[in-house]
Each structure stands twice: as structure tokens, then as C-alpha cells.
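One thing: can you check what follows?
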Amino acid sequence: MLNKYCNSLIKYSRWKTREVLIGDVGIGGDNPIRIQSMTTSDTMDTEGTVDECIRMIKAGCELIRITTPSKKEAENLRNIKARLLKKGYNIPLIADVHYTPSAAELAACIVEKVRVNPGNYADKKKFQKIEYTDKDYNKELERIKSKFLPLVKICKEQNTVIRIGTNHGSLSDRILSRYGDTPKGMVESAMEFVRICNNENHQELVLSMKSSNPKVMIQAYRLLVSQMIKEGMNYPLHLGVTEAGDGLDGRIKSAVGIGSLLEDGLGDTIRVSLTEPPENEIPVAKKILNHLKSRKNQHKIPSIKKYNFNPFSYKKRLTKSVCNIGGDNVPVVLADFSLKKKITPLSLFSIGYKYSVSLDKWNISDQACDYIFLGNNDINFEIPGTLGLIYNYNKWKKNKKGSPFLNIEEYMSGSSISAKMNFIYVCFSDLNQKFFSKLKQDKSAILIIDTYNDNALAEQRRVFIELLNNNIINPVIIGRHFSHNFSKEQLQISSSIDVGSLFCDGFGDGLFLSDDTNKNTPFLNQISFGILQAARTRISKTEYISCPSCGRTLFDLQETTEKIRSATSHLKGLKIGIMGCIVNGPGEMADADYGYVGSGLKKVTLYKGQTVVKRNIPTDEALTELINIIKENGDWKPMRPDL
């Protein structure tokens, strides 16, 4: 299992892919990781698209994708390219094609790269289960080949790159029938097209495995690389979390998915898909790449001799339950108040607790932290009953309140500790057999792991592998401390990368983010819940699977998403897909509970799961109808007036 999908799990080492030239821009090989984005304008609006491209280029975009739904848009790529060249911008353009092979074939003669989606290009998606014999399945592969081969031959003649981009939600009925709605199905969907290209000796390829679920996306890319290694291939990878949404959630979700793979050395181009103007995506992509570039203090991590972990399939690490931590409990969130000069009831407002004087009670939000680390501080007021307090060991010994926070020496000394719950602070260098022996006998110990290694993800993953190898089932809270040198924007990106991948792999029973000022505690609390939501390990709010918009979009996605969010943000745990057109419709939403999909000019079709409930509703009535459908299915809850 070890090193089947990357060069190393203990040090950063980029997986070497073959170089592919997209115009004058090289990707893969020894080239830097490139940033790309996609226009949102109507492709037939030449000036609007050119202006948008220029804004993207000025923000730092190196490759631009433009939607090409039909031959007329493909033909207009000539005008867009000519106008850009006239203005002095020789940036490679990528045609984004889904259902129309003839558009792809025309675009391949005009632009430097064509993206095709295997699930839409030659297959059908009607959510039908079909039983295939091997003979029938092979006939289907021949049919696909006959549809795809003309494009391959044109691209070979024109030296045009093909991106074979699988999307989790648009797997065809044929793939779903044989492989299910799985990362393996995503990989096989792409590899069918890759093998056709290989047989024709066209190797100017880029591959992608996108999903709105970072866990699925991470597993799919790992499986893809593993499969390529088996078949002697090394095509460049384009990384992205599709339909990530907007705001903080969209940034966290993108950082978790893209950053996790980059940390393992995978990825040659990246795109952050936000439901915002495309130029907003570029700074986020830069901060993801900055996370890799900022390493100055990479300590050597011991090699892995045994590996009891499957990187291709999610399984939560088995842990014992200590009070409400570990076992089947959702991950807890800790907040750091150890540097606060004074703690009052108002201090708790910023971490999800609000006190009502008139009712004399605490109101607790869905994003209220579970524990506060007080260090040597005191709290001199009545706290919410659900909030746990953690003190430095010597402070705890004096007041015997809450739970103690011990270092490894204090824990191993055999001194008096809590019979109920003890938090043990450890780094990888603290792990040894004597410590493990004591942990195995201790039903009260919870580990808080930390690292001073700039390669934080690798070292903390190494801690979990060591715990697995020694059958340690004590709960683990993942701790990460950041210096004041981090901007708030870089803080959210770097913490999401460092910690998000661990939770996506089933590691971690809690999260403790801190900084050296305590000024960012409310922000870190918000990020913590965002990371857990992105990793699908603790759901604390409504999730919006919102596409980033493009020229196919049939309504204002940003405005519509905000309206839907305002009306439904209190529906904790519900997943709502907001898609601009049928291409990003029920399939792309994959696991959304409800869908709001553009189906015509100022028309919307509403879904329950992947089933159409109401078609072609006027956009000014669609939100009311969506709420009615949610109510009819018993998923509506009134807003809480106290929060």
C-alpha cells in the first residue's frame, strides 16, 4: 500500500508527470504549478468575455477556460482569441465542452486545449440501472471510441491538448451501473478515454477528478494516480473541488481538497471554483500555493515500516469514548482563552454562546465550541452546562475544576490526575512504547497532538500511523498553532490544508486551532467548524453546493445563492444544490437533498434529490416554491429567534 499514489508520505516530493505544452505554457514536468479559472460571461459576448479574461490575467490567471456548449460558441472563440491578441494578451484558452462532440472538434482547431467530460460526451445519464454482460459492455466501449476518436485525431493533428475531466456527479448510467457512485467509477470513466488516446499515440493529455465532496475528490485523485502507475502513465493533473460555493466555506472546502493533494506532491494546475467573479478565485489559489512555498523548518520524519491505513477509502479511526470525545461522537472543537487578560460572559459570545439576561439562560448555537483551554486563567461566572473547561495541570491541581492539560512528563510521572478526563499534549518525538503501555490501560486519556514541523500534515499523519500500528485507541484532538505572521486569509487556507486532509482520512476526534495572540479565537472557531463541515465529519450548518457560474448560466448565481442562503441558512445538515444550467444539474449535485437548477431563460426546475419535482418555474417564484417543497418533505424548521 505504501507509496502507491505518491512519492512519499513523510516528506514533500512532487510526483513527476510528463510535460504538456498548452500553447507556450508548460504544465507538468519541472514547470511550476499553474493557476487557471473560467469565464462566467456569455461566450457569444466577445467584448464581455475579453474584458473578463483581462481581469483574470491581471489577477494572475495563467490558463483560461471558456464554456463552449455548441458550434457557434466554438466558432466565436476565434474572435475572443483575436481580440485578446490585439490587446497584447497571448494566454492559452481552453474550450469547455460537455454534450456536443462537433463543438469540441471545431474548438480543437482554434484554441490550445479542449476539456471534455466523459460522462456527458458520449454517454447518457437518466439515472437508469442497466445490467451489462461483458460482451455488451465492450460494445459500449466501442461506441464511445467511435464518438471520441474524431476529436483525438484532430487534436493530434493540431497539437491540441485534451483535458479528460471526470466529475463525480456526471458519471454516466453505464459507469454507475458497473462501478457505483464511487471514486473507482470516476477513475474508470476517465481511463476509458485515456486508453483511447494512448492507442492513437496522442499523449497531450491532462486529467482531473472533481467532486463537491473533498473526501471523494481526494480518494479519486489518489486512485487515478495509482491506476496510472500500474499502467505506466504519468499525465499531468488538474486539481479542483467543483461547486465549492462562496465565501469562507468555498475557500475552506477548496483548500481542504486541493491542498491535501498538493501536500502529497500531486497536481500540476489548480482552479478554485467559487460562486464569485472569477478574478476572486486567483488570490485564493495563490494562498494555497503559498502554503507549500513558505516552508523553512522541515524536520526529518522517520520512515514508515508498517501502514495500517487505506488511502483510497474512508474509514474513521477506531477510538474509545472518553465522555463526549471519541467513539461515535462527532469531533469536538476547542477554543484557546489562555492568553485572555479577563474572561467575562461576553467573551463567550464570539464562540457560539449568548446569555439572555431576561430569561437567565445561555443560548447555544450550532457552532458553539465544546471546550475552552483556560491555561492558568479563572472563570468567575456560571458557564453553560455543555461547555467544558481545561486548565494547566498545576492550576487544575489547585482548584480541581474542569479537566487537566498535561505535558508528557507530567502524565508519565504518575502524579494525581483526573479519574474522568485528561488531555495529554504530545508531539511525534514524545511517542514511545512506555507511553503507549500506559495509554492502553488509561480510559481517561485524550491526546492533543501538535507539531513544530513546517511539514505539519505529514508529521501529524505520521503520529496517527504510529498510533494505528501500536493499536492505540485513545481519542486524538488535532492541534495546530499559528504565529501572528499569518494573515487571516492565509490562516484559513493553511489550517484547512494542514488539518482538513487528516479528517478526510478518518483521523481526529477533535480540533484545537490557536494563535499566539488569542485575538483570532472567534475566527479560528469559525474555521474549525468549516473544516469539519468540509470533511463531512461534523455538520453544523446548511451546505450549499453552488457552481461557480459560466456562460451557460441562466440566472445570476451570486444573487440567487445569497437569496437562498438568507432563507435557508438555519436548516442545519441540509444540502442544497444551486446550479446555473442542466449541465451542472442533478448529476453534478450528486448528494444534494434539494436542487435549484436553471432550465431556461428566467426558468428554474426544482429537485428533491435527483428527482424533478417542479419544472420551468419563473425565477421570481422559484425560492418560494423551493421552500414549499422542503416543507412538504418535512425538512423545514423555523428560525430560532434567540440566535
Notes: The chain has 19 helices and 27 strands. The chain has a mean pLDDT of 89. Residues 134-158 form the longest helix (25 residues). Residues 9 and 458 are 6 Å apart (CA to CA).
